[in-house]
Amino acid sequence: MTDPADLASADLAGPAGPADAPAHARSAQAASPSGQIACTVCAMNPLCHPRSSPADASSLVECRRRLRAGETLYRAGTPRASIYAVRAGFLTVRAPAADGTGHIVRFLLPGDAAGLDGFASGIHQSEAVALGDSEVCEIPAYRAEILADFRAAIGAHLRGLLARELGESHQHAAALARLTAAQRVAQFLLHLSQRWLERGYSGCAFRLPMTRREMGDHLGLTMETVSRVMSDFQARGWIALARDEVKIRAEGMLRASLQPSK
Amino acid sequence: MTDPADLASADLAGPAGPADAPAHARSAQAASPSGQIACTVCAMNPLCHPRSSPADASSLVECRRRLRAGETLYRAGTPRASIYAVRAGFLTVRAPAADGTGHIVRFLLPGDAAGLDGFASGIHQSEAVALGDSEVCEIPAYRAEILADFRAAIGAHLRGLLARELGESHQHAAALARLTAAQRVAQFLLHLSQRWLERGYSGCAFRLPMTRREMGDHLGLTMETVSRVMSDFQARGWIALARDEVKIRAEGMLRASLQPSK
DNA sequence: CGCGAGTTTGAGAGAAGTCAAAGTGTGTGG
DNA sequence: CCACACACTTTGACTTCTCTCAAACTCGCG
Predict the structure, then answer these.
(1) What are the beta bridge partners of residue A247?
(2) I need a surface site. Which of A156, A158, A223, B113 has the fewest CB within 10 A?
(3) Given a cut of 80, is residue A80 above it in pLDDT?
(4) Alpha helices (H) in chain A, listed in sequence order
(5) Quick one: average pLDDT of B113-136?
């Protein structure tokens, strides 16, 4: 659409803003300083860059779509036109409920795939909304499906993406069913940390692009409970909070708190 | 393996045992009196019976496997050798946890597909255990994948199955995060009712093949809470309980109790 | 500088968990 | 065929965790 160069600013930055902490652990190969993720760590990578046929490579991604904070990528109940890969920024995936807000099924980070739930009926069951200014790669669904039919590896990759999401959803449900408020928050922070590490950023210090309420909507807690738990973790010295940035100070303690005994 | 004729007995029966209530609403086309589900309502149907190439039809299902109550179909951490369709009986799908029991992700009814989570890494992330004597159709994974690569419709069907499971998992997570104990039980009963209807059985009266504890492990509740809620529903006249059979007497009230106001 | 969205903290209420005991039904073995 | 044992369920009393309601606080922005 437009020149992606100016995306380097503001909300599109990586886990810790480039401003006051430019040094802390950002391994270079995956994460660009602009906050855009490299294609090599993207979940959609094999679809966009099928190595066996370079001719397709340029044509698969229809366009890059930019979203402003709060803008909706797709709505529940609408036909699935495309699947997406998050290139920069953050999004929420929400399972809408009768009373308005609904449950936040997952948070999307750069490199994550989105819109796969539409493979069920061709209608999206969830909605995705940008948390801040974001950019996604858009892959028309018909192209993905045609390609999947032609290239076995693409089909297998799509199955893998779906199955991985399914497994994560199961883990999330298990956490909601079995863990205390503190354990859910601890697991959430560790999970985010892990995902940043996989993307080549520091897993020790990152930004929380969502509000306390949105964390609560994800974890099945109220914003007050989330806030209290985080304050408690800070009081124990397990994390450090400043604005919307968090530093993991005692990963071991967080991890230990997940064990059944506690 | 063995003659499936003797499967008509005991635990393999449909939602209400054939014994004392042979008449109550069993529409004939899908549900056989033996408790085996007809292939027409099975989630795997297009895989087993690809209409365009009758030659494959007999070869896709490797074998029917019979399970005794408590027997494990597949374990978490083991390589996925096959995917399955439940032909008769009931199974639990569990996401194992450190402390042993783990969260019950879903209950499998006849016609349901199982083992799809293995598409992520080739290793099962969950385990499936028979609740009572059961029978499954086993489809070797390599055959499903080869077929998916050859026939576009098969690949699309697998994606559809995965995406549908994903959507259900999201709904389940939303229920755990947002609903009260009573609402979760009400939704669970309505969901089971719906699934029996889809299979050609009565949605008003069916058996609960799982214990209260297992219901609790699925709904994120203790067995005492499940029991209390069910007793309360019965006291209100919304359901009737006898042994492990349940009758829905006021579906409207159950459904209304899910609304936010309550 | 002051407004407003978001966050933190506190006090009290309510929902579900825990512990405990009694009740019910099933299946086994005498 | 009956009796007993065991597993599952039901019910009760009490505890605890999280929610709700409320108020103070912080920070970014106009």
Answers:
(1) A205, A240
(2) A223
(3) yes
(4) 45-48, 54-60, 141-150, 152-178, 181-198, 212-219, 223-235, 251-256
(5) 95
